[in-house]
Design a protein that fits this description.
Helix content is about 5%, strand content about 40%. Strand 4 and strand 5 form a beta hairpin.
Length: about 375
């Protein structure tokens, strides 16, 4: 990615796009329409659908907001004190598989301090608010350096009921190939923060085995896995890894995999590394950071059957949404979007996307 473009993106992220957000529809294929669900979010970073179809949205400065019946509720679900410098802040949200009974909501956020560090905290919901004092620390990650980039932040439950945590390498590629820290990795933990006994202990291309808290490592060799998604039904995992100078990657989540960063970026022939299933080149001059990530496998489908099993992904600078078909072919879907940052397919069978300028939008099929 060009230096000037990276600097422009950095300025936009830190400034939080404080200017008034424009409300405009994306360009979508014939038979589809793009509609506004809600606006007014401040520096949003991620979104997730609750089982009752409410949308929870993380705002970088520490507030977790709720969109209910198409309206952004004025009172946050919870407000956290976070370090939101650079790419730090409140970055991810997930619902417990048993949310209907235990009401647990998990968030990934940066705890201020000298040094700061990233953390996963669990809260208990009471309607649209967290129960006061219900926060429980599930996972504390390594101390961060002065670099404020590459924090990752996605958190998702797998079909196995384990919580998968996607952690950036804190601007230091060497972390991704080390078993002495949990940076640049996918972590796999139990819901209470303990470590499953069946996590891998060794990884190709790296000597030694994990010990202590580092036994939570499930895969290594990632740069900045900001978004990821599990496919409903199959449990297949795709990891979106933000690239450096050449490629954005979509990686198949594999137990014990080494994805190669910083030795490898994009396609690789190194037998120690698991290469990406799809790459997006920076050669067009506009691609800079893969975001979003959502499988189209809703309980009720609204799109044509040809979309079933597809994987939607977007680019923050390019302002587009593309998809991989179930057979692995890449196709364009939407364009003209101002900084798409995350995506989810709702129970109604429609793709919803979040923009950095503070909107949740929805793409409906009308034929």
């Amino acid at each position: 990615m060009r230096v000037r473009q990276r600097l422009a993106l950095w300025v936009a992220l830190v400034a939080g796009l404080s200017t008034t957000a424009s409300v405009h529809a994306a360009t979508v294929p014939a038979g589809f329409t793009d509609m506004l669900v809600t606006s007014g979010l401040n520096r949003p970073t991620a979104m997730a659908f609750a089982p009752d179809n409410r949308i929870f949205v993380t705002e970088q400065r520490g507030t977790l907001r709720v969109v209910k019946d198409g309206k952004l509720l004025p009172t946050p679900f919870v407000s956290l004190t976070v370090d939101s410098s650079g790419e730090r802040g409140l970055l991810g949200v997930a619902f417990d598989p048993n949310f209907g009974s235990n009401k647990f909501v998990y968030v990934y956020h940066t705890v201020p301090g000298s040094p700061a560090h990233n953390r996963v905290t669990r809260f208990t919901a009471n309607g649209d608010r967290a129960v006061a004092g219900s926060g429980r620390v599930i996972l504390d990650l390594n101390a961060l350096s002065s670099a404020t980039n590459h924090n990752g932040g996605a958190i998702h439950f797998g079909r196995d009921g384990k919580l998968y945590v996607f952690v950036g390498e804190n601007g230091n590629g060497a972390n991704s190939q080390s078993l002495s820290n949990r940076l640049g990795k996918v972590l796999r933990i139990n819901k209470d923060g303990s470590i499953p006994g069946d996590n891998p202990r060794s990884f190709p291309g790296i000597g030694g085995q994990t010990t202590g808290v580092n036994r939570s490592i499930w895969a290594v060799g990632l740069r900045n896995p900001f978004t990821a998604a599990f496919q409903p039904g199959t449990g297949k995992l795709f990891i979106d890894d933000v690239g450096a100078s050449s490629y954005e990657e979509i990686n198949r989540g594999v137990r014990g995999a080494n994805y190669g960063w910083p030795v490898s970026e994009g396609p690789t022939t190194n037998p120690n590394f698991t290469g990406p299933i799809h790459v997006i080149s920076h050669s067009d001059g506009s691609t800079c950071a893969i975001t979003g990530g959502a499988f189209y496998n809703p309980a009720v489908t609204q799109y044509p059957d040809s979309f079933i099993g597809s994987y939607f992904y977007s680019d923050l600078c390019g302002g587009w949404i593309h998809y991989l078909t179930a057979s692995g072919n890449a196709r364009p879907f939407a364009s003209g979007i101002t900084q798409p940052i995350d995506m989810e397919v709702g129970d109604g069978g429609m793709l919803n996307y979040l923009t950095r300028e503070g909107q949740v939008r929805r793409i409906r099929y009308t034929r």
